[in-house]
Specification:
With 112 residues, this protein is mainly beta. Helix content is 4%, strand content 44%. The chain has a single domain (2-109), classed as Rieske [2Fe-2S] iron-sulphur domain (Rieske Iron-sulfur Protein), CATH 2.102.10. The protein has one helix at residues 105-109; strands at 2-6, 17-23, 26-33, 36-41, 55-57, 60-62, 69-71, 87-93, 96-102.
């Protein structure tokens, strides 16, 4: 099940920048690349680097430590990396943006 969370307007990244934020207890990166918004994991699966301190090229998020590249739309790592990052759905409703996150199996299991 996907839950939608409103993104605080103050957290929206400027054009061609990355912002790290916490939503519903999960840390993510919001990326504004060429006027398109993406929501992805904040941590590089290769060495654990903070991807919010990286940069974007050719619609890919580049890790600041070892230059691993991840497709902003799919999360797939570049050829030969064998890794990926999670991506999250985004939806614009009027002037507001929402990020969709799946509830974890354990949260669904132990829901009140």
């Amino acid at each position: 099940m996907i839950h939608w969370y409103k993104i605080d307007k103050a957290s929206m990244p400027a054009l061609n920048s990355i912002t790290k934020l916490s939503i519903a207890g999960k840390t993510i990166c919001l990326v504004n690349y060429d006027q398109e918004l993406f929501a992805v994991a904040w941590k590089c699966p290769h060495a654990g680097a903070d991807l919010s301190t990286g940069w974007c090229e050719n619609k890919q998020l580049i890790c600041p430590y070892h230059r691993h590249a991840f497709d902003l739309s799919t999360g797939r790592g570049a050829i030969g990396q064998g890794n990926y990052i999670n991506t999250y759905s985004l939806e614009k409703r009027g002037d507001d943006w929402f990020v969709g996150m799946k509830s974890s199996f354990f949260k669904r299991l132990f829901r009140k």
